[in-house]
Design goal:
447 residues; disordered C terminus
Length: 447
């Protein structure tokens, strides 16, 4: 548990740092208008579809690097990093083009006209931040998989300060800058992500020069077998994250058909839920790394125990989070806005969010534990069925057919999330029993 906390704590803080950028953006545009909140919310939700696919694909680096590190094959881990960097650059091109194309055709989705124009301006800028986001993520995954998480955290802290200052200057026109509104928020985020990529690249280069000098010794080239492994593990992981995060992004585009107040409340509550989710997500990443390292050492008992410890930490925190959401809804919502209509809708949504906190924690840790034994397919299928065959259809029916409004969307999403959590816990329970007697090859085949 000590080792898990040592790795999980900076990883959790790193994920919170990533979320803090969106939180800061909302804080600043929240002082502009509910329409501005909705525009940034919709724009971010659309952007997330593309960003999360790339980041999910790069999680395919977790198992081969942590497994190689556990087995003492550090050079092989560096070669996997090279493949991750190649993937980051190549996939950023079509994804950026697709996002810009979609941005010019958003009108077909029937968004509120007031929100549409501001959303398009925001996306026009933020689309270009995909490349720095992917490169930073690949470098962070590498360090994380070998047990180094603090540098990413420090970089994110500085980047968030830069983002806050840039938001203030570019949204409101301070310090001689033009007042760009929501577009200014996009430029601030773009600059911050570029800063993260550059500083992380410098750190990894200098760290490698001090310890291994693999950047000099190992030829930077495409390696078919390693790339196949990365894509074989990363593709289902990317789809799993797309199914999970995408359903919430879709709910935001659906909420854009409602009033500006409902959309603003939805976005504020979604941002709050995302902040609490970052803690078990960080624990999930630490669980995947440590389980993978135990597998590399053929320590199957350690892998099994580590997985269950991850569940204990993740679900335990989310129980605490649920209590806080139930006790202090007014204090939480007032951080974002003072609009009375937004606050009223937001309080009803926070109640639903509090109820699914345990499910959210269990499902994300389950995904990490399974990724640690090279099973990225089970979470993909479970998320597809739970969110898209149950959660979203139920939410749409409650929202638009029974006229529950945005609350109906959240009740539906909660039902899907609960099904996913229960199923993934059951799958890990079954596979953890196999770790008592199976060999590495048999475990990999079973996964």
């Amino acid at each position: 548990m000590k080792n898990m906390l040592k790795l999980a704590t900076p990883v959790v803080l790193t994920y919170l740092g990533l979320m803090l950028m969106g939180f800061v953006d909302l804080l600043f545009v929240g002082r502009v208008s509910p329409t501005a909140i909705g525009a940034v919310g919709v724009g971010t939700s659309i952007f997330i579809w593309f960003m999360i696919f790339g980041i999910g694909l790069l999680t395919g680096m977790d198992y081969p690097i942590s497994h190689a590190f556990g087995a003492g094959k550090t050079e092989e881990g560096h070669r996997v990093l090279n493949q991750g960097l190649i993937v980051s650059v190549i996939m950023s091109v079509p994804l950026t083009v697709m996002l810009l194309f979609l941005n010019h055709h958003l009108a077909v989705f029937g968004f509120n006209p007031q929100i549409l124009s501001e959303t398009q301006g925001y996306l026009e800028v933020i689309a270009w931040s995909l490349l720095p986001t992917f490169v930073f993520s690949a470098l962070r995954q590498y360090l994380q998989a070998i047990g180094i998480a603090r540098p990413a955290l420090v970089i994110l802290v500085v980047a968030n300060v830069l983002n806050a200052l840039a938001n203030y200057a570019l949204i409101f026109g301070k310090w001689g800058m033009p007042a760009l509104g929501t577009v200014g928020s996009a430029w601030a985020t773009f600059v911050s992500r570029g800063f993260m990529m550059i500083v992380m690249a410098i750190y990894v280069w200098r760290w490698d020069a001090k310890h291994h000098q693999y950047f000099k010794k190992v030829v930077f080239q495409y390696e078919r077998d390693l790339m196949k492994t990365l894509l074989r593990l990363g593709t289902p992981s990317a789809l799993q994250m797309l199914f999970e995060v995408g359903v919430f992004a879709t709910s935001t585009t659906l909420a854009a058909k409602l009033t500006a107040s409902e959309l603003a409340a939805h976005q504020i509550v979604l941002n709050t839920a995302s902040m609490t989710f970052m803690v078990p997500m960080g624990i999930s990443s630490a669980t995947a790394v440590l389980v993978g390292q135990h597998m590399g050492k053929n320590d199957f008992r350690g892998a099994r125990i580590t997985g269950w410890r991850g569940f204990a930490l993740g679900v335990g925190f989310m129980a605490f989070s649920a209590v806080m959401l139930l006790l202090f809804p007014d204090a939480i919502l007032s951080i974002y806005t003072t609009d009375s209509q937004v606050l009223e809708v937001g309080k009803s949504l926070l109640l639903v969010v509090a109820l699914f906190q345990l499910s959210d924690g269990a499902q994300v840790v389950g995904t990490g534990a399974l990724r640690g034994i090279a099973d990225t397919h089970s979470p993909m299928y479970v998320n597809l069925v739970g969110h898209w065959a149950l959660g979203l259809p139920v939410g749409v029916y409650l929202c638009f057919s029974l006229h529950w409004g945005v609350k109906g969307l959240w009740v539906g999403l909660s039902s899907g999330l609960t099904l996913v959590a229960l199923t993934l816990v059951f799958i890990w329970w079954k596979k953890s029993h196999l770790l008592k007697s199976r060999t590495v090859v048999e475990i990999a085949d079973f996964a």
